[in-house]
């Protein structure tokens, strides 16, 4: 091997050492060969991995060619002129513009079949890290949900330890809507809430009068239309069908018109409306038909118990009764409506009546009969043992009614608004009854659960004032003049 060949090999050895140092400094974090195989793109030469500023301007580097055999001693000598005179200083132009380098590669490939093809070297080169698979998000944890679930589990452990609730279930991360919290019916940490009693300066006439239940012009038109339909040739046409609670225009309009007595069917529909708008799984309140309250005021026969059990089982599918905060029972007794509330959370039995007081003879036999029958029904159909005789009987202050026909409207509004920390005297009065009637008529008729929407019934109500046949009906004009105006 002649002197020029030795000089070339020395330069190649020096270059390999520099490359080795450079690669070690760049890839010190990769210790295994299998990780290095994913570090570089095989389509790039080793010189592209080096920055131009890593070398002095006088250093000119040829493209690296790794061989598996040494040059043959019989090969012709290779021009050993300085590398700077053969290759441009910029390493990026080595392959494209370096004539001397290309000549060198061509001669070497032609003389020795043992030299590895450059393309084969690139295939063996390390792969680029960017070719690795993208990060896939398998899931995430919501701090709020985890905190709620931990609270549920801790309450369950506490209740199980103290044998408070043997039926509550925690389903891991998925929470059951009907039992998502064990706080329903549970005594508050600081004892039962004390019902608010309004002071003299926190009620009328010291509270300024305001429009508490405004009715829009469109709502008033619909109200008038339904009242007119109740006495027209369409009076037997079905107007409401909410969960199989059905009413004709005659029954629906005559119950909610000004001066009308609220029928049981209107109360049924209102309880279904409250169920949909305030589902027990969220509100922790259950609403019972007035027929159940009527049965609790009489001797409990066998067939009556079967009906009550069916009603209790149906209500428990939405939320277990012992996990509810309050149970509402509207009752119509002697053509008068009052509301019976079982407040499990505050250990209270509340009676809301817009006409009678606790000491009135009207409630003389009602209170003991209701408490006794409800205790019997609860012990028979509910698993949790609660002594309702130990509950406090309370009569919250309720605005006084002016007409006997308004008791049902007061009961409906009490179902919607009352809680121990609410003063009803500051929320409504007898002057709001007509507006409340118009509001409830619109809410029930146009509720999304009403199956009579998008039928002839809705068309009659909506287009009542647009149809000349209806507009000039003398009876309709008479009703329009006597229905409560918008305030």
* Approximate shape: elongated
CATH superfamily of the largest domain: Adenoviral Proteinase, Chain A
- Helices, by number, come to 18
Taking the alpha carbons of the first and last residues, their distance comes to 114 Å
Write the layout of secondary structure elements.
Blueprint: H1 3-26, H2 33-36, H3 94-97, H4 99-111, H5 118-124, H6 143-162, H7 217-229, E1 238-242, E2 245-248, H8 249-256, H9 264-277, H10 280-283, E3 285-287, H11 290-296, H12 302-318, E4 326-332, E5 337-343, E6 348-352, H13 366-381, E7 392-394, H14 407-417, H15 433-445, H16 456-462, H17 468-471, H18 474-482
Parallel strand pairs: 3-4, 6-7
Antiparallel strand pairs: 1-2, 4-5, 5-6
Helix pairs in contact: 7-8, 7-15, 7-18
Domain Ubiquitin-like protease family profile: 245-418
Pfam family, one: Peptidase_C48
Organism: Oryza meridionalis
Describe the structure.
The model is unreliable at 38-101 and 165-182 (pLDDT under 50). α7 (217-229) crosses α18. 40% of the residues lie in helices and 7% in strands. The chain has helices spanning 3-26, 33-36, 94-97, 99-111, 118-124, 143-162, 217-229, 249-256, 264-277, 280-283, 290-296, 302-318, 366-381, 407-417, 433-445, 456-462, 468-471, 474-482; strands at 238-242, 245-248, 285-287, 326-332, 337-343, 348-352, 392-394. The protein is built from 18 helices and 7 strands. A 5-stranded mixed sheet has the order 3-4-5-6-7. The protein has 487 residues and is of the alpha/beta class. It folds into 3 domains: 3-131, no CATH class; 143-179, no CATH class; 214-482, Adenoviral Proteinase, Chain A (Adenoviral Proteinase, Chain). Belongs to the peptidase C48 family. Pfam families: Peptidase_C48. It comes from Oryza meridionalis.
